[in-house]
Design goal:
D-Maltodextrin-Binding Protein, domain 2; 357 residues; 24% strand
C-alpha cells in the first residue's frame, strides 16, 4: 500500500512537468510564391523556422498569375502571396472583392526584388557555339531549335517573353522578328497590332502549340529548367537569377530588352499583353511592359496575420536579404510600399512609399 502511495505521489509531482514539457503546437503559415524564387525561399524557410520554432511555413510555388488565382478564385487559405510581377496584386487582388468579407483580397503590397530576363541554354544546345546577344532571336527562330516559354496566361515570365520578342523588332530594326518566331506555331495564332506606337500582343484563350512546333510551353518558367537539363529544350526564357542558381549558360539580353533596368522604362512602355478572353471571374487584366518587380502582400482574409508579418519582416530584414543576394536574386534598396498607409506597422521600417503613391 505504501508503495502505491509513493508512486502516486511521484506521479502527482511529475504531472505539471510532463504537461508543461509537451511540444508547443506550431502555427502554420501558408506561403504561395512565384516559381522563380524557389531556391532562395527554401533557404529562407529553413533559416526562419530555425529562429521561429513556433511557426511552420508551408511553401507552394506556381506561376505568378496562378498564385493569385489560388487566393481569389480557388478560395484557398493563404497567408502570404509573392509574385514575380507586383502589378498583378492591384490588378487581381485590389480589384476583386471577397464576398465573405466584402473586402478586396489585398489593399497593399511591397515591391522588394527585381530581376532580368535572359535566354538559358546548355553545352548541348544546338548552335550554342554561335548564339549571342545580337543574334539570339535568329538562332531561336530556327525550326530545328526547341525553345521553352512559360504560359503567358499563368506566369509573368511567359508574357514578358512575348514582350521581349516584340521589343526586339525595334531594337534590332527588323519588323519580322515576332512573326518569324511565332507564326504557325500555335493552333490559335498570337496576334499583334500597333495602337499609336503601342505594340499590343493578343493572347488567345487556348495557347496550344501545333505538333512538331519548335516552341514548347509549360505553366511555369521553372518547369522549363528540367527540360533544358534533359536536353528536351535547347533554349528557354528564364530570369537571370534562376539561370545562375542552376549553373546554366545564358545569353544576356540588351538592357532595352531584359525588362530589368529603370533607365529603359520608357522603352518597356511600348508593349503590352492582353488576354483576348475573360480569364478571370471579375477582371480582364492587361499586362503592361515595365521594369520587373516582385511583389509581396498578406491577403486580407489571412488567419495568421501576425505570423505572416513576422515572416515578411525576416525576408525584408538583414538575414533574409542576405540569403536572397547569396542566391543572386537582386533586390530593391530600399523596398517600395504601395498604399503605404495600409501596410502593417511592423513592416513600414523596411519600405518607403512608392513614387506617386
Amino acid at each position: 500500500m505504501k508503495k502505491i502511495i509513493r508512486i502516486s505521489f511521484i506521479l502527482m509531482c511529475l504531472l505539471p512537468c510532463l504537461t508543461g514539457c509537451r511540444p508547443k503546437e506550431k502555427n502554420t503559415v501558408v506561403v504561395f510564391a512565384a516559381g522563380s524564387v524557389i531556391t532562395p525561399m527554401k533557404a529562407i524557410e529553413q533559416a526562419f523556422e530555425a529562429e521561429n520554432p513556433d511557426i511552420d511555413l508551408q511553401m507552394e510555388y506556381h506561376g505568378s498569375i496562378q498564385v493569385i488565382r489560388h487566393v481569389t478564385e480557388l478560395k484557398e487559405p493563404i497567408d502570404v502571396v509573392i509574385t514575380a510581377d507586383h502589378a498583378l496584386i492591384p490588378t487581381l487582388m485590389y480589384a476583386v472583392t471577397n464576398t465573405e468579407t466584402n473586402q478586396p483580397y489585398a489593399d497593399w503590397y511591397i515591391r522588394f526584388a527585381t530581376n532580368h530576363l535572359a535566354v538559358a541554354y546548355t553545352d548541348a544546345s544546338r548552335y550554342q557555339d554561335e548564339v549571342n546577344s545580337e543574334n539570339w532571336y535568329e538562332v531561336l527562330s530556327r525550326p530545328d531549335v526547341k525553345v521553352g516559354i512559360a504560359d503567358p496566361r499563368f506566369d509573368a515570365a511567359g508574357y514578358r517573353s512575348f514582350m521581349v520578342v516584340k521589343l526586339a523588332e525595334e531594337y534590332y530594326g527588323d519588323p519580322d522578328i515576332f512573326f518569324d518566331f511565332f507564326a504557325g506555331e500555335f493552333r490559335s495564332p498570337v496576334k499583334t497590332n500597333d495602337e499609336d506606337g503601342l505594340q499590343v500582343i493578343h493572347i488567345p484563350e487556348i495557347v496550344e502549340t501545333k505538333p512538331n512546333s519548335h516552341i514548347i510551353m509549360r505553366g511555369a518558367s521553372i518547369q522549363l529548367i528540367a527540360l533544358l537539363e534533359s536536353g528536351d529544350l535547347d533554349y528557354a526564357f528564364e530570369y537571370e537569377s534562376v539561370i545562375a542558381q542552376h549553373d546554366l549558360n545564358l545569353v544576356h539580353l540588351p538592357d532595352q530588352l531584359n525588362m530589368g533596368e529603370a533607365a529603359y522604362q520608357d522603352y518597356y512602355d511600348d508593349v503590352e499583353v492582353r488576354l483576348d478572353f475573360q480569364r478571370f471571374q471579375s477582371v480582364n487584366p492587361v499586362f503592361k511592359g515595365e521594369r520587373i518587380g516582385y511583389g509581396i502582400t498578406i491577403p486580407t482574409n489571412s488567419s495568421h496575420q501576425e505570423d505572416a508579418e513576422r515572416f515578411i519582416s525576416y525576408l525584408l530584414g538583414e538575414k533574409g536579404r542576405a540569403i536572397m543576394l547569396e542566391y543572386q536574386h537582386p533586390l530593391f534598396e530600399p523596398a517600395y510600399g504601395n498604399n503605404y498607409d495600409n501596410i502593417p506597422a511592423s513592416l513600414k521600417d523596411y519600405v518607403v512609399p512608392e513614387p506617386n503613391d
